[in-house]
Amino acid sequence: MAKELLMHDVGEQVDLFLLIKSATKGIASNGKPFLTIILQDQSGDIEAKLWDTSDDEVKMYQPETIVRVAGEVHNYRGRMQLKIRQIRPSSPQDGVSVSDLLETAPISKDEISSKVTQYIFEMKNPNIQRITRHLLKKYLQGFLEYPAATKNHHEFVSGLGYHVVSMLDLAKAIAELYPSLDKDLLFSGIILHDLGKVIELSGPVSTSYTVEGNLLGHISIMVNEIGKAADELGIHGEEVVILQHLVLSHHGKLEWGSPKQPMIKEAEILHLIDNLDAKMNMLDRALKRVKPGEFSERIFPLDNRSFYKPTFHL
Amino acid sequence: MAKELLMHDVGEQVDLFLLIKSATKGIASNGKPFLTIILQDQSGDIEAKLWDTSDDEVKMYQPETIVRVAGEVHNYRGRMQLKIRQIRPSSPQDGVSVSDLLETAPISKDEISSKVTQYIFEMKNPNIQRITRHLLKKYLQGFLEYPAATKNHHEFVSGLGYHVVSMLDLAKAIAELYPSLDKDLLFSGIILHDLGKVIELSGPVSTSYTVEGNLLGHISIMVNEIGKAADELGIHGEEVVILQHLVLSHHGKLEWGSPKQPMIKEAEILHLIDNLDAKMNMLDRALKRVKPGEFSERIFPLDNRSFYKPTFHL
Amino acid sequence: MAKELLMHDVGEQVDLFLLIKSATKGIASNGKPFLTIILQDQSGDIEAKLWDTSDDEVKMYQPETIVRVAGEVHNYRGRMQLKIRQIRPSSPQDGVSVSDLLETAPISKDEISSKVTQYIFEMKNPNIQRITRHLLKKYLQGFLEYPAATKNHHEFVSGLGYHVVSMLDLAKAIAELYPSLDKDLLFSGIILHDLGKVIELSGPVSTSYTVEGNLLGHISIMVNEIGKAADELGIHGEEVVILQHLVLSHHGKLEWGSPKQPMIKEAEILHLIDNLDAKMNMLDRALKRVKPGEFSERIFPLDNRSFYKPTFHL
Amino acid sequence: MAKELLMHDVGEQVDLFLLIKSATKGIASNGKPFLTIILQDQSGDIEAKLWDTSDDEVKMYQPETIVRVAGEVHNYRGRMQLKIRQIRPSSPQDGVSVSDLLETAPISKDEISSKVTQYIFEMKNPNIQRITRHLLKKYLQGFLEYPAATKNHHEFVSGLGYHVVSMLDLAKAIAELYPSLDKDLLFSGIILHDLGKVIELSGPVSTSYTVEGNLLGHISIMVNEIGKAADELGIHGEEVVILQHLVLSHHGKLEWGSPKQPMIKEAEILHLIDNLDAKMNMLDRALKRVKPGEFSERIFPLDNRSFYKPTFHL
Amino acid sequence: MAKELLMHDVGEQVDLFLLIKSATKGIASNGKPFLTIILQDQSGDIEAKLWDTSDDEVKMYQPETIVRVAGEVHNYRGRMQLKIRQIRPSSPQDGVSVSDLLETAPISKDEISSKVTQYIFEMKNPNIQRITRHLLKKYLQGFLEYPAATKNHHEFVSGLGYHVVSMLDLAKAIAELYPSLDKDLLFSGIILHDLGKVIELSGPVSTSYTVEGNLLGHISIMVNEIGKAADELGIHGEEVVILQHLVLSHHGKLEWGSPKQPMIKEAEILHLIDNLDAKMNMLDRALKRVKPGEFSERIFPLDNRSFYKPTFHL
Amino acid sequence: MAKELLMHDVGEQVDLFLLIKSATKGIASNGKPFLTIILQDQSGDIEAKLWDTSDDEVKMYQPETIVRVAGEVHNYRGRMQLKIRQIRPSSPQDGVSVSDLLETAPISKDEISSKVTQYIFEMKNPNIQRITRHLLKKYLQGFLEYPAATKNHHEFVSGLGYHVVSMLDLAKAIAELYPSLDKDLLFSGIILHDLGKVIELSGPVSTSYTVEGNLLGHISIMVNEIGKAADELGIHGEEVVILQHLVLSHHGKLEWGSPKQPMIKEAEILHLIDNLDAKMNMLDRALKRVKPGEFSERIFPLDNRSFYKPTFHL
């Protein structure tokens, strides 16, 4: 069972333990119930149908259940689907746990934690440093486990922390080339910009939006948190407003959910770095499965474009 | 001196005490300095030019100075201008104070205060009532004195409170026709929606934006304040998030500065009431000086439209 | 049979007389014909499928047929569907008539008629009054029976008259708060603004667009009717053009189908009142079926938003 | 005086009888009054300034006055201006009449009239023919004298009729290449499409918008007129609605003032022909004064583009 | 077999040789494979389903295969579908060839060729004439066989050449009415404007985009080709840049894929002629199957509009 | 004379040799001619007026003339202006040359040249390397001297080369963090992306657009050049089309002048790097003159935003 789910080409046989990510009941055109289930392992997810399902089966195959599935990968309207031949719930004897089947960031929580800690350690402005450290500590567990989004980019366990670490490394490289940038501001803005997601989203697995997330959004949530943190720490300098502004404006435009456009140089650059890292993540994931001389699936948040892999990219 | 500034038609002589609202130095095409000054009394403001100004005169005619001016109203490119014949700074003996010359809301601060207090008193939900009362009390003085905006609508002393009172009365009438509306939410949302302007703007006279106003805006400022108020009052109910959402979404669309669109019925209605009262204020002020059968000046925030006064509106 | 169609929750059994609103033939993936039918009673409508339909059945289950249906409500992709177990056409002995099963306005045609008549009676400007009375009389029957639209809001029998009455009451309340408004203009504009729908649409049941409706639209139709009415009544005052302008501009923007934006104060306010009443209708209908703490279905004309019902709205 | 106004290059001396198209009073930066006047002859118009004007001069140089002017053409911010050395009102002895100085269409009113009459004569559908003839007859004088617009294209005496004749000839040529087109509809649509301008605009000279023009616009005005004409002629066929639709939709898009987009083939083609003839007129007028190898002034309604005249266009 | 595919109404029996245009495998809701195939003859194409297909059948019914099909036309969601009763691959004895079943332009390749040659022959500017002749000769075969697009308009064999000939005839008629137009430029621009499609597209049958077509597009491809042609012919006049500009700008706007808007009069007119001929083609094809008094299917590139055929268009 | 032009604050006296960048004649409101001249030295430029200019003076003060100017800096509507007290043309004895007064990149042409050469040297793909080297060599002089634009960013001597070098260094840093990027493609795309500007623009001083630049633009010009280079070098690999695509798509969106959006990962990243370096340049130049706690002038290409310099950025 070494070969992972998404390593299988169309036509290949699959026999794997997989995690049910979601399961939706439907009525087939012959009037009988069926289930549409999304199955995943660490390599990603795939859709499958379960026809003529009994009520027992519907109860058996709930989200977050581990199952053993045998079947064949086929192509349905340009997307891969799994045609199930056999399926059964796993038992404790199988020795498979949920965490074995979740996609996770390529670096560990420890690495993320120590890298971010180091960046905070190097900050020179004490107000910025204290606020950043305070908020990271307050929400550390979520920061290390949550995805950065429910879909599109970094939508996996520890995606949030991994995205932040990539952005910090990128910011460091850019700040060396443009020394007028205030590294403290930039690093703090990066660490805090999406931290509100630990309140906006429900958790690392089967992620959805909380009521507070829907009504306020991670941007307003974190702007409030920065205000509270400053109050608790007794910090009154302009750094507080500036950090709030960096978080507030990091979507770059009003129509993308930032109530103010960037008005600080580091806010503008934070937005660009966020954009660049998210796009690299989407592009790399989309092109991973594409052969030279072919086009990728359409990537919705990139204006629904297909990307081409040149033939000389062997 | 009974006849106010804007009651004069083109061609009429003026001899009035006026307040300098702003004064900008320029260089005329003959190379000599001149001042463009905006003069106001309670009826509104008018532009005037002061030619060949000496350095002494520039210092003498600063904003917030009271002057006595004699001159003639004329029409310059479709806008009224005052052609100054004589001007001198007022002296204490003239017995004119700044407040005599400022445009103010048609109802007094006391009336505003007692009306709003009454609306809060009638609220039934204690969480909503307590947060609203707490924040109004905290920022009462500004609430009673600030304008609702630097331009466009309710841009006069006590404009903020007057706008809120008009909206409250309108909300009450609407809620009687649509009884499914939650009056507590609606009234509280109206009282709080622009309260952040007392931090966003510099003050009731010669109003400009503060740094915090520029970088965060009155929406984010008040969302934070609601969070702090709830913390201080020990309130944890969903009312907190809902009130924050009402303030957050009251501009109605992302591109108008709300990071979330309304997702609560009362939030949608709050936005519509705000809109209706602001438009009525702009329309009434623009049409006040227009004769039946004529078109008004263009009103910029109303898509730059001119409005027509029907000939039968005698 | 006291419990109406939409009062049933998912999983409940249904046994009701229902009206077929529409019926569309399809071919199932097994190559056999089936019918998609929309069934309704006064509480609203629901979709159902009829599998393996014979030609006789297709003829039997035409729109505007009353049927007796037994089955179960289930959830299909987030929308309710009726799974039919038994179905038969009703016979005269069942004693059920079409009007028993149509959704209608919450107030009667008589009430609508007398309220609108009263508003006309109170008008002071004789030109406005006579044109309004003339056109209402000419199209009274349609005005009392038509829906206000084919979908989105007030899409039920007498929806047009009900929408107008709500708007009139709202306009009256607003005009009391803003006494500069010309009530005659406002009331007449409200009564006439959608009256062209009695020509644009096919009728109160199974409503569709007429050719004239498609090619000209209710706005141009009614602008023409006002011109004709004035000619027939020998009225030449500016009121004619102003009333035409109110109808012409009531969609508010060119891209929403008004060839001119409002250029009269009452035209602007008419547009806002129309908007507010339509939104209240959509919001109340969407939230009616939602439990506290849940989100509604997406409402397409409200920018496709979901609305949340607070948990304290018990 | 053979050389016309716009035939003069920058730097040349001018001594001509000219017509004052408009005159606006201003106050110079030295506090003295001046007049900005637009002067025209048949070749076009030019701006000039009259400094230190007395009240008598202001009264003397009103719009539609003929004056004799000596001066020099110079270039002011990329536009030609006339620097006046001497100016006096013309006297009857000068023997110059207003019509000598107005720009007019290159073909006479008689030609326009007989060409359009011929096109109507050739129509085969009696309903279309009768409505078209009726309306042309009703508004013939205005049709032959009005401009097609106040600015941008065909903004000269008889511009409306000339524009229509050009479009008719173009439509005839197109209909020969695409024989599926209904020539009667196309010709009638062309003759009527802008005829409402004789009500929308004030007249052939110093043209401005009437109140009816502002509030309803030429499209709605003519749609009403077609309805009235059909009533008076007792015509009830679908031709009436179709002709109304052609006029209604001829601006092509909602945001360009058509409340319906074209839904008839001939309506779509009418829009394209209108567009093509207007653009040819604008392009020819703009390029007339440009030398090979140079760019024209920016043409506002053509997306503010400059057009280049190739060097090989000698 | 005289009656062609699209001449059949819903409900009629079909027994025809048809060409498979495309075939896509799917999985039915009973878990069995099926094929969605598009069948065509010279009158157009229609969709059909083949249920429970074996692997052999999938191989047998590939695109560009000729089959004999018996079945019935029915209506599926407003579009025609063919319900197959019998199907078999054709054999050589049937005597049917692919070209018998392809939709082609209504004029022959020879006619296209001789008409275009004549237009080039009449050019007076030798630089324009030589470049045009050179490029037409280089890509003549593709020019005579390719469609003008993969869908929307002129999407049939020889569609490109036919579109160009229609545009040339139209341009000639227009240039006679507006003699300021440079006919050489206009004719050359028309001949070259879409010629890059012979590189952008894969060929006349089952047309798709090439990699070069996707990454560069026919506009950039042809601009390059004009540059190369001029180099090879040793032509250095401004005509080269002007012709490149005509091709570059013929989509009219940046957002439609032209990196420059038209800045030459003939470039603007070329864009309008292209537009007019494409729209006539779409409208005629859509209205061909519509009866008087009915609306056509929605035409996507015409803003998704339906067009109405008047009842008097018998 | 050590203190440069833009180092002077408002109110300070200036006595400097300056270069006339542009000179425009106007007519003052007293009827007398004047000149608006832009004066520059290496620190930037400033506007000044020369009143009552004689014809001789107009000839004397042409663009690219060196003058000695004494005067005072003052503030005119929020922008700095120079009030001239004395002015005279420089003579050879003054020993000032044009190059002494031009703003130039902070690194020398030699440095630019050797850095770019080194990047080309390190390329591994011979096709990419040869095309890049060939085109750089062909246009080397312009590449080292031209600005990157006529305004907005890098609008100074050697701005093009400096912009490319900054982007190359940035690309190198990014490629180290995201090793999936093809460095050869990225570096070549950066070197070529704006190289067409040496044909689009007139030269390094008083830069304007050439006719070819206006009609084709630097993007199409360089796409052609890559095609020609590949022909001359006999290169036929897919690298040619890919490099053309990188140049073609580097503006990122159709409405920004790219006829194709990026469809290669490196094309997307090239666009982001171009964007980031241009914005850093604009931000640094705008903030250079701003004191902590103040807002910059509005930066037009950054959505016309003002940027704030935090008070703690001492």
Kindly list the characteristics that best describe this protein.
314 residues; alpha+beta; 5 strands; 17% strand; 5-stranded mixed beta barrel; 40% helix; 11 helices; elongated; nuclease (chains A, B, C, D, E, F); homohexamer
Query: Helicity range of the residues of chain A?
Result: 40-55%
Strand order of the largest sheet of chain A: 1-2-3-5-4
Chain oligomer state = homohexamer
| Largest interface chains and counts | A-F, 42 and 42 residues
| Rounded mean pLDDT score of chain A | 92
Structural class of chain A: alpha+beta
Number of strands of chain A: 5
Helices and strands of chain A, in order, run as EEEHEEHHHHHHHHHH
Basic shape of chain A: elongated
The share of residues in extended strands of chain A comes to: 15-25%
Cα end-to-end separation of chain A:
28 Å
Q: Helical region count of chain A?
A: 11
Rounded to an integer, what's the Rg of chain A over CA atoms? 22 Å
The largest pleated sheet of chain A is described as: 5 strands, mixed, barrel
Q: Which parts of chain A are unreliable, with pLDDT below 50 for 5 consecutive residues or more?
A: none
